[in-house]
Specification:
5 helices, single chain, 83% helix, 136 residues
Length: 136
């Protein structure tokens, strides 16, 4: 997985094309979903995690597809951003479920950490994937 990510990053740096960048981002998102599925099969997580994993994968792919239309459309961009926001919410909920499962019964003590981690993930995704692909 790391090797394919490094390969995608090198291709993105060598070929500065919006079309190639969009294709790489979509491929990375689909690969992310496949990696999540393979990881879930190997590690057999709690069944409460499955809906969160599916929401993260589906919202990521749908957000990329909605934001990757040829004609710039404000409503489609809003749909795309809403889907990426739903991904972040699913990450927060997933972290809450995992931590709650480990024996911490006070959810409010974990909520702050979950939000911080989700914001960090979003910032990393924005800086490394979205910002270069949008040429901002």
């Amino acid at each position: 997985m790391v090797l394919s990510g490094a390969t995608f990053a090198c291709v993105h740096m060598v070929i500065p094309s919006a079309t190639v960048s969009d294709a790489l981002y979509l491929a990375s998102t689909v690969f992310f979903g496949v990696a999540l599925l393979a990881s879930a099969i190997i590690h057999k997580p709690d069944r409460r995690i499955w809906p969160v994993v599916l929401v993260v994968a589906l919202c990521s792919v749908a957000g990329q597809v909605a934001g990757n239309n040829t004609a710039p459309n404000e409503s489609m961009r809003a749909v795309s951003e809403l889907l990426f926001f739903a991904t972040q919410l699913a990450l927060v909920i997933g972290l809450l479920v995992v931590v709650n499962r480990r024996g911490t019964h006070e959810v409010s003590s974990v909520l702050g950490d979950s939000v911080i981690v989700a914001i960090g993930v979003w910032l990393t995704v924005w800086i490394s994937l979205l910002q270069p692909s949008l040429d901002i």
